[in-house]
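Lecture notes, structural biology module. Today: joint structure prediction for complexes of two components.
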Amino acid sequence: MSNLLASLVSSAATLEAYGRVLETAQNNVSNASTPGYAKQRLELYALPFDPDGGVTGGVRAGKLVSSRSEYTEQAVRQQTSGLGYQQQLVDNLTAIQANFDISGNQGIPQALNNLLKSFSAWGATPDNVSARQSVIQRATDMASAFQQAAHDVSARSADAQQQIVQTVDQVNQLVGEIQGYNHIAMQGAKNDAGLNARMHAALEELSSLVDVDAAFQTDGTVSLMLNGETPLLLEEKQYQLSASLTRPQDPPPVNVNGPALMRILGSDGSDITSKTTGAQLGALLKLRNQILPSVMGDGAQAGSLNVMAKQFADRVNALLTSGNITNGPPAEAGVPLFSYDTSDATAVAGSLAVDPSLQPEQLAAISPGPPSVSNGVPLALAALANPVQAADKIGGLSYSQFFGQMAGNVGSELNDAKNNLDVQQSLLSQAKDLRQQYQGVSLDEEAIILMQFQRAYQATSKFLTVLDQLTETAINILR
Amino acid sequence: MTASGLVEQLASTRQQLDFAGSLLLKPSPEALDECSTILEATGRQLAQWQPEFAREAGNAAAMEEAWRLRRSFQRTSRLLQGAADFHFNWLRARGAITGGYTGTGDSAPLQHGSRICLEG
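The predicted structure, tokenised, for the full assembly:
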């Protein structure tokens, strides 16, 4: 009788254990869509079974075990950072590219084309007041186009600056949120699956903003390092980031009034800008500190837009002032067409202007020679369209070609970013699949998969090497 | 092969490469084996068409398609690299976890996962 009772007790305990297994499965199903949740399983232990000794066996419920693998979580976060970087670049470069239309129907290319045509028309009728008036009008349009481009690029730079400040604020806010989770974990909730899910969801969001390494501790807290070396969170202590403007002094700036750069500071005030290269913040810094300054200038460079504006204005002015309005006597020299702020090499495009009081008769058409040519100056100006002399070129190119190259650089960056974005989306999808594959897999099964993968990879990678050469050869032959 | 034929063949090869890339989104050893077969066939075709490329030098449409093919290849290549980085880093980490480090400081090689079960 006592054995029967023992068996009944054992069966009841077994049923209770399986009841907990069902509850665990039910909880996994309920949380299937919870951000950051990883399924759990209940460990079961067989109890001793010895009928002769009256030991009735059965099963006992053990502890709950999470199927989460921090290695796979970090791999997903790494690809999330990569996606954040490419997405941010595509978004901002798309906006910037709108200012570099090379179709010739608007902006600087159109204004340049119209001005060069007006020089040519003036050359055909050098004394015609209307032709001269047209030159002044087209030059004014050209100056406005440069001013507009400079203003637009500056606005994009200001946008990027604001985005950097906002991103840093978001990072601090998210790290603060995770700090709160660490606090809860330290109060004894280290095995709380819900808390763990919230931590991981916040970490994934954080990784799209910055490159972050997360190390989970045995007490359930997580330590966060930016780019692997700058602390963001250790236990309950948060280390805040900040963003500010800077004018690097080493080497001493060439343009003391040039646009300042953005820098990121760690909580101890150390400059970590150069190490902040990944995720959205890395992309914004690249735009704000590298791509845009190459166009609009900074302390170290004038920027291609200003270089073009200055060289074009200087060349036109030099040709006009070398000519004569009348041969006299006394001969009356021409006056310059363009003016700009000479105190700041980074402000040329933004300040390029034509004196509104300039009169058509002040434009010098006569090239003094000898021999003197009545339309020598407008002809020399019209030659800027298809330059032969080195003095009429900029960097060995015509002005239209130079602008095309500038626009091409932005377009090329955008094109690369778009291609990389497509690949990065696939890489994130792959990392998420791998996370799924490895969840809940035993170490033994995992070892077998790893070895199979190693063998399969060796075979596949050989073909990729051959294909790399073959596709490159195809392009070279077709070129 | 005509110029348009070559462009079509290149497009078809690119589609095969795209398919190989899509297999790598779920990079199981089986997927890699299938991918390997496709890459081998793709390589053989490209090698076979080399004389055609020379005849179509300067053909803009063929050139454009060749660039698309190259981009597709680069995508596939990066996906393979992504999966390889994942697995090989984990292989090293697992080796270090289970076997420690060798005398030269490298992770110990991962022991084969086969098991022997004795019952009696």
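Point to remember: The two ends of chain A are 93 Å apart (CA to CA).
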